[in-house]
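Shift notes (night). Ran 3-hydroxybutyryl-CoA dehydrogenase while the centrifuge was going.
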Amino acid sequence: MGLGIAQTAASSGYAVIMIDVDLEAAVKGIAKIDGQLSRLAAKGRINEEQRLETLGKLRPAAGLKEAGDAAVVIEAAPEHKALKLQLFRELDQICDRKAVLASNTSSIPITEIAAAAKHDDRVIGMHFMNPVPVMPLVEVIRGLATSDEAAGRIMSLAQAMGKTPVEVRDVPGFAANRILMPMINEAIYTVYEGVASPAAVDQVMMLGMRHPMGPITLADFIGLDTCLSIMETLHQGFGDPKYRPCPLLRSYVAAGWLGRKTGRGFYVYEEQER
Ligand SMILES: CC(=O)CC(=O)SCCNC(=O)CCNC(=O)[C@H](O)C(C)(C)COP(=O)(O)OP(=O)(O)OC[C@H]1O[C@@H](n2cnc3c(N)ncnc32)[C@H](O)[C@@H]1OP(=O)(O)O
Ligand SMILES: NC(=O)C1=CN([C@@H]2O[C@H](COP(=O)(O)OP(=O)(O)OC[C@H]3O[C@@H](n4cnc5c(N)ncnc54)[C@H](OP(=O)(O)O)[C@@H]3O)[C@@H](O)[C@H]2O)C=CC1
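Came back to this:
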């Protein structure tokens, strides 16, 4: 998600610092973005000058201190609450007081993340959809303390990145994943209970409901670890058994079969598909 957000921001004219724990990972990320831009250039969607201009806006970096002068930070680390709290605690100390601190979390309530920051009024949810360069939606979520100024700046930024921001309330899973993820979880139960194979479940939803991707393929595309984290946040947050994660989903994550990003999930992927 970080790569997609960086690519979209840079191609919209913003200077982007791509921060990872590991500099090599950030450098590799820029090479992946170049691969995407080259594909767009080959299709005639952008010209060579635009490709180079976008690449020139991206700078790889390691360590949160690099975010010190940023006007906006968009956090896209893995979906683990303790990690997000630690990142926002540190970012709040490192970043300029005027900076807005946004999280791309797909399910963790923003009020809980913002509580880690002393200046909680500048923390907000900016939830992009995957693949970021293609999907028009950004869910915008205000925590209890989020200021109107921070919300206004993030709505404007989403629009400047060519997206349509939709504001939703701060509850576990927000709106998008409260609707999408139980469907994916149910699709996995359908496989678990032997009702249909992964390919058959996907065909049912693509041919029968005109979904562009079947739910099992989509789960592999999102990442099964992220799907499980979202279901756990819904389950714990609402205390409702209807959100219980499917045991098969838990097994796949325990096995390290996380989907497209690890080369194996419900399906197996070649290196070039990852
Ligand atoms: C978990 C969360 O918190 C929230 C979420 O994000 S949930 C996930 C939301 N996303 C979805 O539901 C995606 C559902 N799938 C789709 O919409 C489509 O299958 C898809 C857009 C991913 C691919 O579309 P497709 O028609 O099957 O394939 P394809 O023809 O290869 O791609 C269509 C376009 O998207 C582009 N594209 C596909 N994958 C891309 C990627 N990873 N990055 C950038 N561009 C991509 C292609 O280049 C192509 O562009 P052009 O039309 O300009 O040529
Ligand atoms: N996957 C999806 O479809 C969507 C995901 N999201 C949300 O976006 C966020 C990221 O998701 P996704 O890209 O799938 O997650 P991944 O776990 O696939 O990627 C997260 C990236 O963050 C890096 N990272 C790990 N720890 C740190 C750290 N301490 N500081 C900086 N970077 C770190 C990881 O590096 P390494 O690989 O080396 O660990 C990895 O490159 C999550 O909150 C997720 O819920 C939102 C919308 C859609």
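The two ends are 13 Å apart (CA to CA). The pocket of NDP (ligand 2) is lined by residues 1-2, 20-22, 25, 76-79, 83, 104-106, 127-128, 130, 222-223, 226, 261 (CB under 6 Å).
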